[in-house]
Write a structure and sequence with these properties.
Blueprint (H helix, E strand, L loop, with lengths): L4 H7 L1 H8 L6 H6 L4 H13 L5 H8 L2 H7 L16
Helix pairs in contact: 1-2, 4-5
């Protein structure tokens, strides 16, 4: 089966970027730079609305404030890599 590149890219943007070798930021990458729970909820709802995360995953993240608290603020804007355990 032959696919047109642009059609495939439109239908499966995340998979396309993985195949092409570029890493797209995930919802977790965005949550790491949030400063508040409210900001994190807004990010989660945005990703859910765009279909980049499932409703179940969005609900899981939103229903676990202790998890969100452990994620938010762990990275500054402009830091593009996660800190290692030794950092």
């Amino acid at each position: 089966m032959k696919w047109e590149k642009e059609k495939f890219k439109k239908m499966f943007p995340n998979l396309f970027h993985e195949i092409e070798g570029s890493n797209l930021p995930t919802v977790l990458d965005h949550l790491e730079v949030c400063k508040t729970i409210e900001e994190a909820i807004e990010i989660i709802e945005y990703f859910e609305k765009r279909g980049e995360i499932s409703k179940e995953y969005a609900n899981f993240l939103k229903s676990n404030p202790s998890l969100l608290k452990s994620i938010i603020g762990t990275r500054e804007r402009g830091e593009y890599t996660r800190r290692g355990l030794s950092d």
